[in-house]
Amino acid sequence: MEGDCLSCMKYLMFLFNFFIFLGGACLLGLGIWVIVDPTGFREIVAANPLLFTGAYIMLAMGAMLFLLGFLGCCGAIRENKCLLLFFFMFILLIFLAELSAAILAFIFRENLTREFFTKELKKHYQRHNDTDVFSSTWNSVMITFACCGVNGPEDFESIPHLPYSPSDKATPEACCQRELQSREGMFINKEACLSGVERFQNRQGCYTVILNSFETYVYLAGALAIGVLAIELFAMIFAMCLFRGIQ
């Protein structure tokens, strides 16, 4: 009976570690995609030190989970106590790090409000100055998502113009409609857009557009994170039970 229980524990341990292995592969792939994606995310990540750090943490965590899932599977099948103890210690560290990151994300969630982004835009945006990372990033976001400002074109009315910009053109070029949503896309009617003709402008704010675009993925990421934490917790329990059961 004890042997059957140990055998069941071994295969459950293998199953949970296989899921950890797959989760690590997904995180690794997602981290690589965020960093190398050509549609604007690379510039957004590079412009924000917090996002830049987060992307590489995601890569590191994915690589560690990928490796530990593999080691856990090997330790369970081969019934190797050294591998199981190594797995338990590192999966515990990863579990605590992920839990801490989730708590910090919850605490600092107020920094992602509409008011925060509006204030930052009005404070730092320099219109067509692409040598400024903040401005270049915002221009890329507005072009990629076909949106304008945080709330709409009215966000730019109080932003001063650069010395070489016409003073009567409050709307930046990045808010003008294009045939293709990229920097290489042709303007539909640039002059009419800059002169204030609304039908040639992207009138919707980026906050709403991006929130709607990523709302499903945010809930999916949250559910995935909870699932990964639960799997890691059960994997640690099974690892210790299997470790104690091996003679």
From TrEMBL:
<dbReference type="InterPro" id="IPR000301">
    <property type="entry name" value="Tetraspanin_animals"/>
</dbReference>
<dbReference type="InterPro" id="IPR018503">
    <property type="entry name" value="Tetraspanin_CS"/>
</dbReference>
<comment type="similarity">
    <text>Belongs to the tetraspanin (TM4SF) family.</text>
</comment>
<protein>
    <recommendedName>
        <fullName>Tetraspanin</fullName>
    </recommendedName>
</protein>
<dbReference type="GO" id="GO:0005886">
    <property type="term" value="C:plasma membrane"/>
</dbReference>
<keyword id="KW-1133">Transmembrane helix</keyword>
<feature type="transmembrane region" description="Helical">
    <location>
        <begin position="84"/>
        <end position="108"/>
    </location>
</feature>
<keyword id="KW-0472">Membrane</keyword>
<keyword id="KW-0812">Transmembrane</keyword>
<dbReference type="InterPro" id="IPR008952">
    <property type="entry name" value="Tetraspanin_EC2_sf"/>
</dbReference>
<dbReference type="Pfam" id="PF00335">
    <property type="entry name" value="Tetraspanin"/>
</dbReference>
<feature type="transmembrane region" description="Helical">
    <location>
        <begin position="217"/>
        <end position="243"/>
    </location>
</feature>
<keyword id="KW-0325">Glycoprotein</keyword>
<feature type="transmembrane region" description="Helical">
    <location>
        <begin position="56"/>
        <end position="77"/>
    </location>
</feature>
<feature type="transmembrane region" description="Helical">
    <location>
        <begin position="12"/>
        <end position="36"/>
    </location>
</feature>
<dbReference type="InterPro" id="IPR018499">
    <property type="entry name" value="Tetraspanin/Peripherin"/>
</dbReference>
